[in-house]
Amino acid sequence: MTDFSDLELLDALGVDIEQDKASARSPREERIIAGFEEIQRFVEQHGRNPHHGEGGEIFERIYAVRLDRLRAQEDCRTLLEPLDRQGLLSAASGPEAAVASVDDDELLAQLGVSPGATDDLTDLRHVRSTADRRAAEEIANRELCKDFEKFKPLFEQVQKDLETGLRLTKPFAMKAEIQPGHLFIVSGQKAYVAEMGEIFSNAQGRTDARLRVIFDNGTESNLLMRSLQRALHKDEAGRRISDPVAGPLFTQESEDGDEASGTIYVLRSKSSDPTVVANRAILHKIGVTGGSVERRIANARLDPTFLMADVEIVATYELFNISRARLENVIHRIFGAARLDIAIKDRFGNPIVPREWFLVPRFVIDEAIEKIRDGTIAGYAYDPKTGTLRQS
Q1: How far is CA 280 from the centre of its chain?
Q2: DSSP alpha helix (H) spans, 26-145
Q3: At residue 256, what are phi and psi to the nearest 5 degrees?
Q4: Which of 137-151, 180-194, 274-288 has the lowest mean pLDDT?
């Protein structure tokens, strides 16, 4: 196994370590810079400094107060002057230099922040770090993907693979997972890394690269690998989409480390209902249980799910390390066109429509399970007209 230094491990996990000690900034300085950059963006968007006054929007008034405070404190001016491309820190006359008509607590109260929640606007406790904000902006800054038709089938197939269990999602862990051809879920959308530029070292000496990332809504973004990494770590729902799962979904024997998830069963009804009698040879109930099949069917004659009649077990398959609910949904999707349309009255005379009985031959069920086992089931469904599985 390759040995990594502490810095390399932290870097791979997305933990930023400032290696240039001389240029390292304190958390307070980072927050001051981040707050000043918000004021700079306001000026760029509106073409003027933020104004005081009751007629202005509350955020503009906050920025005006913040700018006054930054101008008044020598340590803040010293820190920010190299970044002040717009000359915001120089003394100004007029409304920009006026004293705020309300104090900080009143302004923050109007924003829904309790007075005293922050000691000073230059503290900026609720402002994200510069790196976090840039990462969020890069993810949000997208443009129309002109060749999306080339990627659309990929996203459609990935969705099918997720539904059938051929692909799984797992928490994002390391930067090394970000590679061309890999898929992620970030900000609620699937993201495909289509291209990766040449790897370089950034100002902090950490490796980075420019990516072309395609999103499933038809947009794309030219963002840095570290920006995608940060966005995935910050997003509680951020996930990596696995490659298609290799190997069987079913097995009769578990391997070391496997945990039994349940059993898929195929049943035949012993009901004397005319519809059941006429179709008994091809009428099967297909379901999944987490316990014993025998225990599951023990009271079949009292359960409308089992057509209020005893049943016989036709076949069973043990499941390991797979979602029972997801697999059951996949099976029912495959055979949905052949679902039995029948209403059975329960013990109290209430009509119940069972959903797990299908008019499908046993050999087709076996074929479907084989396709699930070898990972080729995506896109297949049962066609009642031909009595075969057909790919859509």
Answers
A1: 44
A2: 27-46, 58-72, 74-80, 104-110, 130-140
A3: -55, 130
A4: 137-151
Tokens encoding 262:
């349940």
Length of the chain: 392
Q: Long-range pairs for 272-276 at CB < 8 Å and ≥24 separation?
A: 272/309, 273/307, 273/309, 273/342, 273/344, 275/340, 275/342, 276/307, 276/309
Residue whose structure tokens are 């890999």: 182
Question: Are 345 and 304 in contact, with CB atoms under 8 Å apart?
Answer: yes
Residue-wise pLDDT for 204-255, tens only, equals: 778 888 999 999 999 998 888 888 888 888 888 888 988 765 444 555 555 4
3-class secondary-structure state, position 210 = strand
Distance CA 14, CA 160 (A): 31
Residue 191 and residue 183 in contact, taking contact as beta carbons nearer than 8 Å: yes
Would you state the structure tokens that stand for residue 302, as one six-digit string?
Answer: 């009292």
Contacts of 214 (CB under 8 A, 6+ apart): 145, 148, 151, 191, 192, 194, 220
Percentages of the chain per state (helix, strand, coil), in multiples of 5: 40, 20, 40
What whole-number distance in Å separates Cα of residue 233 and Cα of residue 14? 8
Alpha-carbon gap, residue 293 to 254, rounded angstroms: 18
- Give the span between the Cα atoms of 275 and 335, in whole angstroms: 19
Query: Model confidence over 281-313: pLDDT tens digits?
Result: 999 999 888 888 999 999 999 998 899 999 999
What crossing angle do the helices spanning 27-46 and 58-72 adopt, rounded to 10°?
130
Q: Tell how strand 189-196 and strand 283-289 pair up.
A: unpaired
pLDDT of residue 326: 75
Chain Cα centroid distance, residue 85: 38
- CA 220/CA 176 separation, integer angstroms: 21
Please state, in angstroms and rounded to a whole number, the distance separating the CA atoms of residues 245 and 165.
Answer: 8
Are the C-beta atoms of 194 and 151 separated by less than 8 Å?
Answer: yes
- Do residues 340 and 355 touch, judged by C-beta distance below 8 A? no
Rounded Cα distance between 325 and 42, Å, is: 50
Q: Measured between alpha carbons, how far is 60 from 101 in angstroms, rounded to an integer?
A: 13
How many angstroms separate the first and last alpha carbons of the chain? 45
Domain boundaries, the chain: 24-110, 130-241, 260-391
